[in-house]
What does this fold into?
Amino acid sequence: MPQTDCVVEARSVPGAGEYPVLKLPTRVLGITMPAPDVAVLRLQLPANQNLQYRAGQYVEFILRDGARRCYSMANAPHNLGSPPAIELHLRHMPGGKFTDHVFGAMKERDILRMEGPFGSFFLREDSDKPMVLLASGTGFAPIKAIVEHMQHKGIGRDGRSLLGMSAPRRSLPARLVHGHGRRDAEPALRAGAVGADRRGRLDRPHRLRARGRDGRLA
Ligand SMILES: Cc1cc2nc3c(=O)[nH]c(=O)nc-3n(C[C@H](O)[C@H](O)[C@H](O)COP(=O)(O)OP(=O)(O)OC[C@H]3O[C@@H](n4cnc5c(N)ncnc54)[C@H](O)[C@@H]3O)c2cc1C
It folds into this structure.
């Protein structure tokens, strides 16, 4: 039972908020469902506004009643395609205000109001320290964007990817990573089992590699 208010202090993150935060209308270009409870949205960006962001950041949708919902870009900024579009991975939360709409009524060409970019989760490129990329379900979206960015920039850095999932071979991350040609991607964690009993390779060509099966993160 809470006894008092809780105050959380966060150290400021240098580099965050470097790009201008824009409010823009986006048009639904495509909706695909790689799993029954997951939608991949492609949202076309307006031609006259240049949304700049760092791989790993997120945008907020502004709903009719002013409520906001956050979603991480799953494609890196160099990979918007033509016409320029961001990719988002949404998990259906039954009874949820926004995702019920996405899974029930949303259709191509619908317009959504959006603001962004936000967030300080992105790769610190001035470091060459090993890193751990940890995600499960649609939390894989910003990780995917970061890995795409690293490939694009030729950033080689040791690390380990741990992807939590309940049905590894058919899961969203495995399918999306395979879809992007990295056939050595494997889940490192099964839902509910902390400790890697599988190799977590995500990106061998660029030296993101997992070592051993001992569960150590180093
Ligand atoms: C930085 C950030 C990034 C994110 N990125 C992603 C992403 O990439 N992909 C993704 O899928 N999600 C992401 N999320 C989560 C996302 O923003 C939404 O919270 C999520 O999609 C649910 O939104 P909703 O409007 O559908 O559900 P909500 O309306 O917020 O409801 C959530 C759940 O609570 C239940 N609920 C609502 N009101 C009540 C109540 N009064 N009593 C009991 N239960 C209730 C609903 O039934 C539903 O199951 C992110 C969140 C943050 C903060």
Q: What stands out?
A: Confidence is low (pLDDT under 50) at residues 175-218. The chain is about 15% helix and 30% strand. The two ends are 37 Å apart (CA to CA).
